[in-house]
Design brief:
The chain is of the alpha/beta class. It is built from 13 helices and eight strands. Helix 3 (130-144) crosses helix 4 (157-168).
């Protein structure tokens, strides 16, 4: 029995080693493809090159958040609100590349990596919740924008973070938040609600899959770009935007999938919507968003009385990259209005 067991272990080891070797080869091929695509982008400022001196902000549970602040130029408009950008799941602050390029110098900009994302510290799973993300947003505001008007811009899980913040800190929203942009996000019923099959089986799925992190890591190295292009952007989106997205997602650790996914099966932030000021709330949705489908944006606009719905035809979930001209135009119009 002992001999058979060791032989079995050796066979398993050989299989794992073979799979790892194949993954390494596949990663080399994928990296070469990514490099070729990066050379074809042709943007004035390379994606991921816009940065400021990092600031470390401590969340209330001790997790260190990576924050960057772009200050305004001397001739910028007085009284303009600080714009705070909150990114989505498995992304990082670089997703706001085009908005940052368009606004820096004209407005004070605050960008940060959500906990466990980008250059922020890792959270335990217990604190990988939307309520905690709302608390993190409060910590960032207290640290780098403690006074004056602010405009909150959230995409996907970042939009949920903004709504969670509004739900927990309604007085702060009423006193200081001049405007809100909710982009490609939802307030609830994202995965069929609490009675759906996925909701009921989520603990088993998450706990089971989290034990296979190594194998999932190897699978992600094979060709993540193909999946990104298929699901994260619109069908006719130029490849450079899919590649930018893939660059962020492929750099995100696998544990982010298990740690944060449970939030989406039990999502219910509709109570927060009444706190938002409708006449300065902008909802942006894309018709080919396959991750947070367009109907969620439409419902947000219906629930937030007086809000404006901007529909981006043909774009997918990464609309701030794919349709950055339209997104920037809508954002600048809102900022002019609230200033």
């Amino acid at each position: 029995m002992a001999l058979m067991s060791w032989r079995g272990l050796a066979a398993v080891g050989a299989t794992v080693a073979g799979a790892a070797g194949a993954a390494v080869t596949a990663k080399v091929v994928a990296d070469r493809g990514r490099t070729r695509r990066r050379l074809r982008r042709g943007d004035d400022a390379a994606f991921g090159s816009l940065h400021a001196t990092p600031i470390r902000v401590m969340a209330d549970d001790g997790v260190s958040l990576n924050v960057e602040v772009d200050e305004v130029d001397d001739d910028a408009r007085d009284g303009a609100p600080t714009v705070v950008f909150v990114h989505g799941w498995v992304l990082d602050l670089n997703c706001w590349h085009y908005q940052r390029a368009a606004l820096r110098g004209h407005h004070r900009l605050v960008l940060y990596d959500q906990r466990s994302h980008g250059n922020s510290g890792r959270s335990d799973r217990e604190h990988a919740t939307l309520e905690q993300l709302g608390d993190d947003l409060r910590a960032v505001l207290d640290a780098v924008a403690p006074s004056g008007p602010v405009v909150l811009v959230g995409h996907s899980m970042g939009g949920m973070s903004v709504m969670a913040f509004a739900k927990k800190y309604p007085d702060v929203v009423r006193e200081r938040v001049s405007g809100v942009v909710l982009m490609g996000t939802s307030a609830g019923e994202l995965v069929g609600g609490g009675r759906s099959f996925l909701s009921r089986t989520q603990p088993v799925l998450v706990n089971g899959l989290s034990k296979l992190t190594f194998l999932v890591d190897q699978a992600r190295k094979v060709n993540s770009y193909a999946l990104t292009k298929r699901f994260a952007v619109g069908p006719h989106t130029p490849e450079k935007y899919a590649d930018m997205t893939d660059e962020m997602i492929s750099g995100a650790p696998t544990h982010l999938f298990w740690d944060f996914y449970p939030n989406f099966t039990s999502l219910d932030l509709f109570d927060a919507l009444g706190v938002l000021k409708g006449d300065t709330t902008l909802v942006i949705g894309a018709t080919h968003d396959q991750l947070t489908v367009y109907k969620h944006s439409r419902r947000l606009a219906e629930e937030i009385q007086g809000s404006e719905l901007v529909t981006i035809e043909g774009a997918g979930h990464m609309m701030m990259l794919e349709a950055h001209e339209l997104v920037n135009e809508a954002l600048i119009e809102l900022l002019d209005r609230v200033a």
